[in-house]
């Protein structure tokens, strides 16, 4: 990480240890020994950084020393983050240009993310097309002082969203001189080359002080074909997917193109096209149809900047302001151009030349279009966050105040390449009308289907669509805190806050999508909306005894949207009991809420298709497992119809935690905390994969077909009739919309520890560890449904446990850190069993060249391992849970100059 002042290694270790100690219990200080600080989860400054709830601290140095690539990577690796999320490296997702986390497995929209204690704008495109979230991918690490993670409900302090917890990213407040940081690296197995430069500095002159930071980075993509284990989707013996095919609809058999035809096409898809013989006939296929276009890590270029100024009006009053800017350009690819005849009219046509009904399909190879990058999707994002205000002490009192205004905005332009509607006539010739059954009539030349395209021909049938998406939020706040009166054990402190704010978003699709310009595109309807809010809150810190402190907070929030108001009162209370200076018992109870996501409220009826779908019902009808089923993970996937709802109610949450911290010395401490979180009236867009699993189980009699879940699932999946001329039982549409579900609740155990050993001439050692175990996770879709055990369910991709452990060694100019992360078991992709746990090892080593310069080597995934999962076919690893990059390494150089 870029430091404002490069310290000798011994001093750097002292800073590292101090940062680690900040998250553990400290002996109660005497007056004046410890400066009071603001800790996430409270608006009352306090001497001890341990309170009634556990707060995890990641320092700026931790981000680099433990092998984290950025802020998101650091948060994603924390043990409290047990939920799998789709992000920049997931592949098929609505938001590959963004990254988020899921504390306690409750989803990204149930974690409140703050920068310097303030809200920032959501990413303007909804996660999974459903929920709003904050993008962690564009927060620069150059000026991160620390990140504090509070697990559990905190709405009584921060308002909506803080159900699973709060992530507060705290930037550095001061700097002296200038620092430059250079970092470059890549992967052992190819792809992913990246480089970064950070430049920061600051200083003061008279009453004015300030700092700035600039971060420029660039990363090349990793393609799935660059990893041997996933370079072909038929390496496990699966039948290669179709690249060129003709299907006789009446017989249900493929029309054999002949070996010579497929051989002529053999150079396509990286010299892999062959004649594939199946029980239904033959076609030209390739195991590299999917890997040819799939990026397992996005291409990215970003420019981020931050600056802040403070002007001292008097000894105790200052004006302040800060500005953060981010520009990101991202590219990914999850599927190449593909065509199916008359896709908008049933997928088949009447062939006048043969006198029968046929269905033709065609995958267009990278060699035909000038390389796979020609069909990349692109995101150009810009974000800004501005804050200014005044703070100081109220004269002749113990009170201080802050008045601030914050505005944050986010803009994203998405560019998607699409085939034009003329592609049907290119391959089939002109449409000659319709027959009595409504099928289109063509008289095509079959040679056209098997003729490779030239780049010019491809350009003639390809266009691009651009959507523009925006979001913003603004808040005016006034807060104050101070002493009310004194008790024998100490002063009673009060903090108060009032906030006025608003937020909004707009999604504007390309108008061409509704003008018939593109092939097989559903109607795209824009959406926009806004809401206003105000809040009033108070918090008390009451030392009943020297050994016993009570905290209490209450807050009322009111949201106005869609012509109505929704107000919530939340509260929390906590206890800290110190029977000895080295021992702390703590407990907390909190209520919380989340106002409905604006995307849920304002989303219009939207038609589209999923990037991929698994049709469990048709696989069951075929009588074989998912790995050999042609309806498993097929792409593009099923069509959907999605609607919003302005009648949604706010979610209500409550959480409990209690634990113990033992700190016999400043060199050793351990803690253990039990936690439980419950959400009622959960707003959720039902997962289409779960809908299809439930539907298949209901049809098979594994679930009660008369249960509310089955009635709902069967109504949501619309299929072709079983006796349809073409594609019987195929999914027509999946109906999805948000509902207020009955309940979700989860509980678990967090444990952590730290041990600092001074070993004389050998050096100093710091051992740290964190462990999270999910004890239960239950869900009810409807109140009358039985509990679903998500913790042990074979369709839930979340972890049940996580362990982080690190060992740091320092001796003179040398320092090194080894970080081990162990992930608990997961369900396999087929949902038939659990995989074994998996561990990753990162390592860094640093040498202090001089007081001003240092050089570091960082290696991630030292053992070059990846987690395989062949249960459900390609891509043969748990997508979203683990990355398949293999060993990565970086060289990093830091230099400080100036004062």
TrEMBL record:
Keywords: Cell outer membrane, Membrane, Receptor, Signal, TonB box, Transmembrane, Transmembrane beta strand, Transport. It is a multi-pass membrane protein. Residues 49-166 form the TonB-dependent receptor plug domain. The keyword Membrane applies. Its main location: membrane. Residues 338-862 form the TonB-dependent receptor-like beta-barrel domain. It is found in: Cell outer membrane. Residues 1-27 form the signal peptide. Belongs to the TonB-dependent receptor family. This is TonB-dependent receptor plug domain-containing protein. It comes from Paraherbaspirillum soli. The lineage of its organism: Bacteria, Pseudomonadati, Pseudomonadota, Betaproteobacteria, Burkholderiales.
